[in-house]
Amino acid sequence: MSDAGYDHATVERRWQEAWDDADVFRTADNVEDPTYVLGMYPYPSGKLHMGHVRNYTITDAYARFRRMQGDDVLHPMGWDAFGLPAENAAKERDTNPRDWTVDCIETMTEQMESMGFGYDWDREITTCTPDYYQWNQWLFSRFHEEGLVERRDADVNWCPHCETVLADEQVEGEAELCWRCETPVEQRELEQWFLQITEYADELLEDIDDLEGWPNSVRQMQRNWIGRQHGTELEFHVEDYGPVEAFTTRVDTIHGATFFALAPDHPISEELAEEDDEIRRFVDHEADPDGDEPNGVETGLTATNPATGEEIPVYVADFVLSDVGTGALMAVPAHDERDHAFAEKMGIDIRPVIAPEPDGDEEPTAPDVSESAYTEDGVLIDAGEYSGLDSETARERLTADIDSAEEATQYQLRDWGISRQRYWGTPIPVVHCDDCGPVMVPDEDLPVELPEFINTTGNPLDAAEEWQRTTCPECGADATRETDTMDTFVDSSWYFLRYVSPDLEDAPFDRERANDWMPVDQYVGGIEHAVMHLLYSRFFTKVLADNEGLEHREPFTDLLAQGMVQLEGEKMSKSKGNVVSPQRIVEEYGADTARLFMMQAAQPERDFDWSEEGVQSTYAFLERLQGLVEEYAAETPDGDDDAIASYVDAEIDATIAIATAEYDDLTFNKALRETQDLVRTLRQYADYTEPHAETYERGLSAVVRLLAPVAPHIAEELYDELGGDGFVAEAAWPTAEVDRDYVAKRRRLVENTREDIRDIVDVAGIEDPLGIDVVVAPEWKYDALEIAIESDADNLIGELMQEGHIREQGDAAADYGQDLQAEREALSMTLEPDAEYAALESAAWLIEREFDAPVRVVRAAEADEDVLANAEPGRPAIEIDD
Ligand SMILES: [Zn+2]
Ligand SMILES: [Zn+2]
């Protein structure tokens, strides 16, 4: 593949070394408020995949663009280095997670360097080093001091054969089998550590509105995840047990409540299970909250509806969750889909009490709820004194009237369980003392370092007996260390702050610098992190703002969720065997080709298909560009500063202005299309005539700089060839001001004209045209077009005829008026007649070049009447002499 003209391997290596030697991408500690560009740091799993390459090309291109615009830029990289896969890999390979992780990091670092990503490697962080994870422990203690840490029972996966706790990822398939021994996994209650993110639920929800630089989809996912609901809390009296609290958002439907449901782990359910085998079996084995359909068992008890006094049956049902709301609910099958499904299955009454709002004075009629529930608001029916009220009023009245009822807010969001029963994570800095209970490890004893890895079936920390043995920080008695480690999402919830001062020894981050440098201006990563990582990071930032003097309450100003790189419409994956290796592409075509192909293939948010032909044509483009620059450098042209040069000049300005705006929006594909179009124009220019040196050089120089963020190595090479000083990576971004609307009209005019000529030549079978006249429309047609666009009159022709100078055109005006009327919806403004004439004049060389015939641009005043009939604004008449 490598042609004599473009030795990508040599070129790329040379510039990577040169950037490195000159510290081009280093951000000094004393810069003020740099533009902070960040890609989500990778998990060091072995090798970079195409998703990584795309993610980091986006941030690198944007960081380079901002740097060339004159910004100080912070663009760091690090490693999300803890996690179960390293532990599994170590077990399989009979090594330890640390060595395996370090190897992966080394490989991936080399690959990143070979891609030409411009990182400040002095700021590299690796979360599995004590330097880093001691601050997870320190932060855990601060959260604890603030009352944001809780220890309570929670279910864990337990393999009775291995006698160990399993992470969710170690439970396989629908049958939920142990990943090692395929024994069915059971649930066990163990004491677990939680961070109380729910304390921040309201702020996390409300501040989403201000995240205007985030995709709406991500904002909506966070809103749904937090799931705030306003409703009513009220008591139902359960026979033998007394009042039981329930939550509902639809107290207006209470007259239709036909049963009462308890979560399987509601205290009443558990008490009943002691005595009743059927309930016991359901609670212990059959209940499946994730199942497709609701299941339950009748208790034989009744509950009293506080609005009607009616006694309704009580069920234990698995669709009621104990950690959402109160773990008990009134069920209204006529107006809730899940209640409806359960009622159908159990043969429970379905009684509609809400009707759609009737038209005018009509009586409301009950909706048909035989097949499915009616879930909209409406008007109450069969609801005693409340009949006839609208849902909203009824909710207010019932909440006020029912003694035990009061307004309440409920959230879907739960506290964040961070305990993991595995080795490769941050040890939770707690010591268990028989007398004092769980005690925090004092700050001066941090970090609690991981012991050596022990290859066992269970958690290696449980097997590390010596490591566990310690003394109580409070009373000095013998004590044992906590063996749970932290969820790795703790590491990633604040890593963006560590880059600010990665070597700081007495705090997780330099407060003053963080206040200046944060928030991250542009964050880029996968949509799979829309909720957990991005929500936890926001939570940490708010806690740090409240307690550690951070002056920012949100970590990421602008967020881009990049799309997938696919192969034939499918996600690339090892298991499908449809993986394209970045390494092979870099070896065969070079990093610049891979980067440029990816960035021009689609807008960053969109999925796109990898295409080997696309890669090859990208490579060919870079090769041709290099040829163009080399020819220029070998012999400076000597052409005139003529109309053609002015056309090319205008195109250079337009390209610079448009590409800059597109880079600013991270729509690299559009910026690159512009740039490639300019390359084509320059090539046609040199091909058609002897170019004007200054214009041509300005064009080449603009192209090289516009490509530099995406294809940085070859851009350096060509910048050097053109005599540029220093690095293009540090060169000034080209600037130009144009009216984009004017440019769009000018280009459309030229393109339409060329297409019309092609059509005529084609249809008339003209082989060798002798001359081409391009005739601009008369001025009155421009006036008529403007009137047609602005008018909303039904009778357009009548309106046109009110204008004397149009009316006097007679039949021609009527004909054109009819044309305008027919296309009225699609009309758009064109250039003014003089501007149109000038634009066609300057582009005439392109037509001459294409059709190999002289071109005359003719003003309306100099044209024949019959030719003018075909000339329209934006669409000149064409006369071809053959
Ligand atoms: Zn097992
Ligand atoms: Zn103690």
TrEMBL record:
Q: What is its EC number?
A: 6.1.1.4
What Pfam families does its record include?
Answer: Anticodon_1, tRNA-synt_1, tRNA-synt_1_2, tRNA-synt_1g
Q: Which reaction does it catalyse?
A: tRNA(Leu) + L-leucine + ATP = L-leucyl-tRNA(Leu) + AMP + diphosphate
Q: Which InterPro entries match?
A: aa-tRNA-synth_I_CS, aa-tRNA-synth_Ia, Leu-tRNA-ligase, Leu_tRNA-synth_edit, M/V/L/I-tRNA-synth_anticd-bd, Methionyl/Leucyl_tRNA_Synth, Rossmann-like_a/b/a_fold, tRNAsynth_Ia_anticodon-bd
Q: Which residues form the Leucyl-tRNA synthetase editing domain?
A: 223-400
Q: Which UniProt keywords apply?
A: Aminoacyl-tRNA synthetase, ATP-binding, Cytoplasm, Ligase, Nucleotide-binding, Protein biosynthesis
Q: Does the keyword Ligase apply?
A: yes
* Disordered: region residues: 286-306
Family named by the database record: Belongs to the class-I aminoacyl-tRNA synthetase family.
Which protein are we looking at? Leucine--tRNA ligase
What organism, scientifically named, is this protein from? Natrinema pallidum
List the top taxonomic levels of the source. Archaea, Methanobacteriati, Methanobacteriota, Stenosarchaea group, Halobacteria
